[in-house]
Amino acid sequence: MNNEICLYRVSKNKNPDVKLWMCFPSVYSFSLSSLGYLWISKEFDEMDDVFVERVCSDTHKTCMSSDELDFIGFSFSFDLDFLNIFKMLDKYKIPLKAEERDNSFPLIFAGGPVVTANPMPYSKFFDFFLIGDAKNINTTIIDVYKKNVGKSKNEILKILSDIDGIFVPKYPKTVVKSTEKLDCCVYTPIISNEAYFKDTFILEIVRGCSNCCAFCIASYLNLPQRNVDVSKIIEALEVGLSFTNKIALLGANVCTHPDMEKLCYYLLDKIENGKQLEMSISSLRADKLSPLIVKTLVKAGLKTATVALEAGSERLRKVINKNISNEQFKNTVKVASENGLKGLKVYCMLGIPTETEDDLKAFVEFASELKKEFKGFDLSYSFSTFIPKAHTPFQWCAREDSKSLEYKQNYLKKEFHKLGLKASFSSVKWDYYQTVLSRGDETLTDYLIEVYHNGANLGAFKNSAKGLVDIAKFTKEFNVSDTLPWDFIKVKPGKNALLNEHNRLLR
């Protein structure tokens, strides 16, 4: 922590009525590169009446003990984060289940994309959840607590349950996801050479994605797409660049920012005036990659970028609402190679609903075409497997059988090896259990505890379900007339719109 540069002012006149741990379920270096976690910690820290301490899985000593706290908040960004959350609760001798924690324990909550999409597998472990964007909810939680000091946990939770964007499992009701205007630029409030992305100033310039690929939770969970005003992006960059030369632009669809061209010219001007910029950027949309964007990235030291092809055939791309033709993708590679990039990493997916052997062969045929046409340009491929996610048009779809997916992976490994192309593949088995977690419900409670106690490896995930729950049911096709575990969360465009899109695409 001695190597941190803090980009915000903490009140020197703190008179904390509320004491809070903001917990990150991984190591300290990763927490310093987690924009959402750092930003919400900053917002609590800027409150005069709140003392917040950041605590990570490898924190050895804390300023406050757990019995001094009013709240413990967890960032929950990845399905498997629950394992480190359990580990941290155990470390501080806090019972895992909320029902086993009396009034002597702090209120424990979680926020982040995993629990915004579907908190039900974890509903027995937390007192409440933040559903959606947390900016305005933070102040509300603190105000409610201060006004009700001395009341029991249950009384405070009952009050919190009436607030939009808060889900209290003890008092279940319809919850409206909190969606804030992106009226400021969310950026790294702490720059550190101990961060996983060392000395990097990360800023979010776009939230959500209007393209809405049918499987993509990042698109649907963050609708509508919101773009930060370019003047505010530049204002934030001026702050960040006064401390570091490393920047990272974040967003599901960065290239579609309406003022991306203006931002590129700003960055190029910095470089031409002697600033040694190093820039990285999240995945680029293939049909929006312009020569100007590529030239800017190259001038800022980027050698390769990531673009998503997803499916091997044009037919299957239409099924997922990714309407990019082979010719458009070829043009993307052409723009990248002609304007200085050394290579592209192509992101692909296996097991998309309706995928056939022809779609699989199309991956190989198109990869072969690209290699022949762009000799010397480094193309590498990364394959994940389809995981049905809540609040997307494909939330009802089954996950393909693991043996079938492994067959497909082995076929592509051989074919890409013949072509002399690099191809990496996600773990079919781990992706299977991510599906269980993504579409599970409260019946997973004891299963998750068993997984944790049995070592949290693949064997534990496989064997811990025996006698507790049929986890396979969460990987099968859901009936469109069924009530889904996450239906109580109201997210635009809503379930009927998702069903219409589901039917349209799968026709």
Give a brief outline of the structure.
With 507 residues, the chain is an alpha/beta fold. The protein has helices at 28-31, 35-45, 81-91, 113-117, 135-147, 153-160, 217-220, 230-241, 260-272, 291-299, 314-319, 326-338, 357-373, 402-419, 428-438, 445-453, 458-463, 495-506, and strands at residues 4-6, 18-24, 50-56, 71-75, 107-111, 128-130, 166-167, 175-176, 190-192, 200-204, 206-207, 226-227, 246-250, 278-281, 304-310, 343-350, 378-385, 422-425, 489-490. The protein is 36% helix and 17% strand.
Please describe what this structure looks like.
- This protein has 507 residues and is an alpha/beta fold.
- It folds into two domains: 4-176, Rossmann fold, CATH 3.40.50; 199-439 and 478-506, tm_1862 like domain (pyruvate-formate lyase- activating enzyme), CATH 3.80.30.
- The chain has 18 helices and 19 strands.
- The strands form six sheets. A six-stranded mixed β-sheet has the order 3-2-4-5-6-7.
- β16 (343-350), α13 (357-373) and β17 form a beta-alpha-beta unit.
- α13 runs parallel beside α14.
- The longest helix has 18 residues, at 402-419.
- The termini are far apart.
- The mean pLDDT is 95.
